[in-house]
Amino acid sequence: MFFASDNAGPAHPSVMQALMDANTGYASGYGADPQMTRVRDMIRNAFEAPEAAVHLVATGTAANALVLATLSNPWETIFCSPMAHIHEDECNAPEFFTGGAKLTLVDAMDALMTPQGLQDAILAEETRGVHGPQRGPVSITQATEKGTVYNTADLIALTDVAKSFGLKTHMDGARFTNALVSLGCTPAEMTWKAGIDAVSFGGTKNGLIGVEACIFFDPAVSRQFEFRRKRGAHLFSKHRYLSAQMLAYLTDDLWLTMARQANAACAHLVHGLQHVPDVTLLFPPQSNLLFFDAPRALHRRALAAGAVYYVTRGDVDDGPDDELLTGRLVCDWSTDHGMIDRFIAHLTR
């Protein structure tokens, strides 16, 4: 009963086979492998962006930090939600890779930034001339760290605000595909057609070992990204092993299939939790993760039975049984419905 994170699930067997297939003979390094040519073409085709620049890195933190460094200057500030991964979970990597750009937090509801909140945050900067940070790019987490999803109208409204100030917009898509299948739209509709300039297209949380694609819809910045990736020690020598994973991911729509499986498992989990007394869902569950409040005694029972998940608010071991604590549950492509049913059974026992 493992619900701690989708980055703890197994890689898909097709991905493992692709690595084995790639592990024969010789191939040029640093992204000059033939698999990367196919990956680039497949991503451009999926996003309906024939001129897009596509680069691979091994981690989501590297993808976000390097893309934002490419879109910003050290004297600027990046606008994001208080729950954004770049703010909560990347140990100041964006600030480091940008050479000093700061983060400005934008008011959010259910982890979703609002256009008015974004406009207010942008207007509050560049008020002190050379003494304060200048306005930089906007970073949108899709799906959010609370499991909610921006619809295409939401995205357009946010990018319209950014454009009105001449700012670029980045999408942190660690769970990009979970959001995509939740909305039922196309990659183009969720990105450049909605005004997004660059995407961290995640694979690690969706059945890969460790690969993220950095996509720039304006290829003019591609060369700068390449220098930053190399200087930041994130250019793989044996690059074909990154390419092979992404190639398997994109072949026969495996990326979409795995995200649908993860989202369906989460929907099954939601259905079960709705029938557990004293459990309250905290955010609209729109992708593959959810947060819930439950009494300490219930959390203790589930964890003692072998469930693995994070309690994000409160101490399970200290306090009254009826105090409400917050838990986070995440499903990945391999999450079994039987495992979910066992978890629900322990909660209701």
From TrEMBL:
It holds the Pfam family Beta_elim_lyase. GO terms for biological process: amino acid metabolic process. The keyword Phosphoprotein does not apply. The keyword Lipid biosynthesis does not apply. One of its GO terms (molecular function) is lyase activity. Keywords: Pyridoxal phosphate. Residues 3-279 form the Aromatic amino acid beta-eliminating lyase/threonine aldolase domain. InterPro entries: ArAA_b-elim_lyase/Thr_aldolase, PyrdxlP-dep_Trfase, PyrdxlP-dep_Trfase_major, PyrdxlP-dep_Trfase_small. Its cofactor is pyridoxal 5'-phosphate. Belongs to the threonine aldolase family. Homotetramer. This is L-threonine aldolase.
